[in-house]
Amino acid sequence: MSLAPRAVLVHRTTEYEELLARHGTHGQAEFFLSSRGRSIEEVARRHGRTRQALADVAAAVPLQWRQSRVERADLDRFLFGPEDVVVVVGQDGLVANVAKYLSGQPVVGIDTDPGRNPGVLVRHRPGDAAALFRAAASPGGTTDDLTMVEAVADDTQHLLALNEIYLGPPGHQTARYRLGPDADGSPAEPQASSGVLVGTGTGSTGWLRSLWQERGSTLALPGPTDPRLVWFVREAWPSPTTGTSMVAGELRRDQRLRLTVESDRVVVFGDGMEGDALELTWGQTVRLGISATSLRLTV
């Protein structure tokens, strides 16, 4: 007998909860902020809206379904099942945070603070949750299949991201590597830089766009569902042994970018989740391209 669907509510610790964890009580947190010319009231109101949204969404879960919750910091230890409907209650970035841990489960984005969040990925209100649960569990439910980027190391380490993958030094240093297309006979250029960014159409509204604008690039940024990635090298340094001729490009579905490490340590992380990164050492190779897995965002 197949299991009933499970609604997994994904949330993150609010700013108010972080203040209480640091200062102990509401009064002490209020004093800390007021002594710096700030008020705790708006932070507390946003906390209240988030908690109310979580309560409303939890109440809308169909009675025959199972239900679970997971906080952002625990995502890398949570086991998602194939029957899950993942409900992100919070900000757009929280959808990106959870995407790398999924394998085709439908995702519903609930905006807890309309007007403050862009609402690109959290497109719905808590009051819509009941209808969204039915739509997400329906075989004919409509989704946007958002392109994801993957990194695969030569030791089988694997990383997925919805916005972008960053490869670079673990601190404020320089990464050394060889970069080029992953194809037989294709040249690879030795480079020294502050890192490489490979992003999707979803990520083209954030960090990727910042690099694109700063560079004055003529590359066309992809849309969220386009089977295309764009990559940039950050602050490539020319020297007698390193070049700067390969600093930007695009990748289509059958193409890969290959990077071979030539420094002590390079970290690879996705969507700002530095705590869940791959670590590569001298001589290792990593390949980047479009993932076969997409994020199924319920519309």
Distance between the termini: 29 Å
Could you spell the SSE succession in H and E letters?
EHHHEEHEHEEEEEEEHEEEEEEE
Q: What is the residue-averaged pLDDT?
A: 94
Q: Give unreliable regions as ranges.
A: none
Protein structure class: alpha+beta
Beta-strand segment tally? 18
Helix content percent band: 10-25%
What overall form do the CA principal axes indicate?
Answer: globular
Computed Rg: 21 Å
Strand order of the largest sheet: 2-1-3-4-18-5
How much strand content do the residues show? Answer: 25-35%
Largest beta-sheet details: 6 strands, mixed
How many helix segments?
A: 6
Can you walk through the features of this model?
The protein is an alpha+beta fold and 299 residues long. It is 21% helix and 32% strand. The chain has six helices and 18 strands. The strands form three sheets. It has a six-stranded mixed sheet, sandwiched between helices. A six-stranded antiparallel sheet has the order 7-6-17-14-9-10. The chain has a six-stranded antiparallel sheet with strand order 13-12-11-8-15-16, with helices on one face. Helix 1 (15-23) crosses helix 2. The longest helix is centred in the N-terminal third of the chain and has 20 residues, at 41-60. It is globular and about 60 Å long. The two termini are 29 Å apart. The model has no long low-confidence stretch (mean pLDDT 94).
Write the layout of secondary structure elements.
Layout (H helix, E strand, L loop, with lengths): L5 E6 L3 H9 L2 H9 L6 H20 L5 E6 L12 E7 L1 H8 L6 E6 L17 H9 L5 E4 L2 E5 L4 E4 L2 E5 L6 E7 L7 E5 L1 E5 L7 H9 L12 E7 L13 E5 L4 E5 L3 E6 L7 E4 L3 E6 L4 E4 L1
Parallel strand pairs: 1-2, 1-3, 3-4, 4-18
Antiparallel strand pairs: 5-18, 6-7, 6-17, 8-11, 8-15, 9-10, 9-14, 11-12, 12-13, 14-17, 15-16
Helix pairs in contact: 1-2
